[in-house]
Specification:
Elements (H helix, E strand, L loop, with lengths): L1 H30 L7 H25 L2 H32 L10 H25 L2 E9 L9 E6 L10 H13 L4 E4 L8 H4 L15 E3 L3 H5 L2 H11 L2 E2 L3 E7 L2 E8 L15 H6 L7 E5 L5 H4 L6 E4 L10 H8 L5 E5 L2 E5 L17 E9 L13
Parallel strand pairs: 1-12, 2-3, 3-4, 4-5, 7-8, 8-9, 9-11
Antiparallel strand pairs: 2-12, 6-7, 10-11
């Protein structure tokens, strides 16, 4: 009961803050701009309609049929980016005007025009980047314990695809074709495959059953997979031929050489009803200490712990690289690993910027990617997985 009351109280506070921020946008873009009717009423109505669409969007995604839900969802998600840029630009100009002498009432119209044009330009570029699709990224990572026989082993990572209101079967089909064309040794899907219940999206995800990797296709859960009904989805993905690693591991053997592939649930699963949640101990328990280990974990925050457990390489997603500039700066306040490569104690982390998108159908400064990770054998001192942090 206390948890429900706390949730309701938090929602009310967030709603009040969001409403106040939208009132601020109305003040600067309508009142201070000196708009006359009918533009005054139209612009005010559009801003508050965006606020309402944001509130409706989560419900439309989860409970409405996909066709009608999309009509309500896309305006709300698009407004998330627009209002973020409006607030940023207006806030910066407010601070600047504190130091610039000016006559009251003279700056408002010019500022509104400049801010509106800037936001429109950012949205146009961001939308174009999404329509262009994910780029191919190739990364070579040398690991001290990697077997010579497996030098050049290729893992294709896709992450944060978010099949749902905006991305559908056509996107999934094109993505599968591009991944298979790389002829990977192994395919790693590092979470947030879907945004919606199984019965809503079962046809949309069917192409993923055609993903091919010489040593298999592996999936770990992301937070949105939990929100969408994790047990239903993991059961279905297993039927499609993906190997789901939920705090579990697999030994990949090639000739006389091998490595351990481990995967953990997203840690937010532990906050929801059921048996979900990250358990790194369970994921690593079945692997011999001598084997190099590749860990699949949706949230790169797991690296704070996993690097000290002797894993050699962790592949993650979750952050989208910030998705829209300059949101990456806010992401970094919560998660220090935003995009690309990181090293800690001899272990390596690669964080994908994501292959699809979530929320606004826009990307700015954080292009989507299909990542081909080439693992190399490096002649460096070995370490033991169960030892102290390296």
């Amino acid at each position: 009961m206390r948890r429900w009351l706390a949730g309701i109280a938090t929602f009310i506070v967030l709603l009040a803050v969001a409403g106040w921020l939208h009132a601020y946008v109305v003040q600067r873009m309508v009142v201070d701009a000196g708009l006359d009717n009918p533009w005054r009423g139209i612009t005010t109505g559009l801003i508050w309609a965006g606020f309402g669409a944001m509130l409706v969007q989560p419900l439309a995604d989860r409970f409405l049929p996909r066709s009608s839900g999309r009509l309500l969802s896309l305006p709300g998600t698009s407004w998330m980016a627009l209002v973020f840029w409006f607030l940023l630009a207006l806030g910066v100009t407010d601070l600047a005007l504190l130091t610039i002498p000016h006559e009251p009432g003279t700056i408002g119209p010019w500022r509104a025009a400049a801010v509106g044009g800037t936001v429109a330009a950012l949205a146009s570029v961001g939308h174009y980047n999404v329509r262009r699709g994910p780029r191919d990224v190739r990364v070579e990572i040398a690991l001290p314990r990697w077997p010579r026989e497996l030098d050049g082993y290729r893992i294709v990572q896709i992450s944060d695809i978010h099949i749902g209101p905006a991305l559908d079967r056509r996107f999934a089909r094109a993505l599968v074709e591009r991944v298979n064309a790389l002829e990977p040794d192994l395919v790693a899907v590092t979470g947030d495959l879907v945004d919606g219940r199984l019965e809503q999206l079962i046809e949309e995800v069917q192409p993923f059953g055609e993903l091919r990797g010489r040593d298999g296709v592996y999936f770990v859960t992301g937070n949105h997979d939990f929100y969408s009904g994790v047990d239903d989805w993991t059961d279905h993905l297993t039927k499609l031929g993906l190997r789901v690693l939920r705090n579990d591991s697999q030994i990949i053997t090639r000739g006389r050489s091998a490595f351990g592939l481990a995967g953990v649930d997203d840690h937010r699963g532990g906050l929801l009803p059921g048996d979900g949640g990250e358990d790194l101990d369970a994921a690593l328990a079945g692997l011999p200490d001598a084997l190099p280990v590749v860990l699949l974990a949706h949230d790169p925050s797991t690296f704070k712990t996993s690097h000290a457990r002797g894993i050699d390489l962790q592949l993650s997603g979750h952050t989208h690289g910030g998705q829209i500039w300059p949101f990456h700066a806010l992401v970094r306040l919560v998660i220090p690993f935003v995009a690309g490569r990181y090293s800690r104690g001899g272990a390596e982390l690669y964080v994908s910027r994501g292959t699809g998108f979530w929320g606004p159908p826009m990307r700015l400064g954080a292009p989507a990617e299909i990542t081909e990770i080439v693992v190399r054998a490096a002649p460096q001192p070995s370490h033991a997985r169960t030892g102290d942090p390296r």
